[in-house]
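Session log. Operator J.P. requested a structure for one protein chain; no other inputs attached. Running the standard single-chain path with token output.
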Amino acid sequence: MSVTFEIIGEIEQVEIIAAGSSIRVLPYIQKVYGPGRWRKLKGVAAIRLPNGMIRRVELHWYEAHGIGRKDFKIKRYL
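Structure written below.
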């Protein structure tokens, strides 16, 4: 199941949780988005859900310089 959402404002408390070969899905990420210095990050942000509800959540995503932020996932509601 895929939940679509819109990030409202800035992502705070950003931390790197994996980089380079320690990213488990690195071959998939490189195949879909191209080679780069990929990092997996986490942070806290406010989001708007499809029903209009605004929630504060912990997000995880992948990011590479020149490519940008990809594959946002909601990990937990705060």
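Operator note: The longest strand covers residues 6-19.
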